[in-house]
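Let's do one together. I've listed all components of the complex below, 230 residues spread over two lines.
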Amino acid sequence: QVQLQESGPGLVKPSQTLSLTCIVSGGSISSGGYYWNWIRQHPGKGLEWIGYIYYSGSAYYNPSLMSRVTISVDTSKNQFSLKLNSVTAADTAVYYCARSLRTGWFDPWGQGTLVTVSS
Amino acid sequence: QSVLTQPPSVSGAPGQRVTISCTGSSSNIGAGFAVHWYQQLPGTAPKFLIYDNNNRPSGVPDRFSGSKSDTSASLAITGLQAEDEADYYCQSYDSSLSGSVFGGGTKLTVL
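Okay, and this is what the predicted structure of the assembly comes out as:
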């Protein structure tokens, strides 16, 4: 079955760019039909959808983060990535990647990776 | 401030039934978009629990059920067990945002 795994630095300095990658195994991003998402969870808080990308490269972002977010896809490596620039302490969170239909549910999820923004 | 509203906490004794509400608006649940539910145990990723309002993925016990009406939805858990103690989140699609939205989460305590 499809599995997702996040990777990237666990510590980012304020004002710098947070970069994470989600590696997909057990299925091909290029097969289409699914959207590939980033979701975050601030410590002790709820879930926040960041955005998604389709295998074609078409992406859509949460309007609250749109000015700072870029999601890209590399179908040759079967992975997709998140970049969030100009980070502050408020961006400290566990970041998850997950698969979905466009208006559907998220499944499966990656295990999540904690990113701390601190100098 | 989450787009979907859930009670912060609910509790119940083992064997009892509890419900968790999820209230939305005319741009999400009220617009006909389906509601999905997740269970999150401490330190783990959310687990897919209910999809399309009232459907259980394979492996989810039939003690868990969902319903939807107008601009709200509910998750019901019957025969409460200690292992059900977790955070529960509802999720839907919002046409104003053109993206997914979550509830703020509800912490279930099994007394």
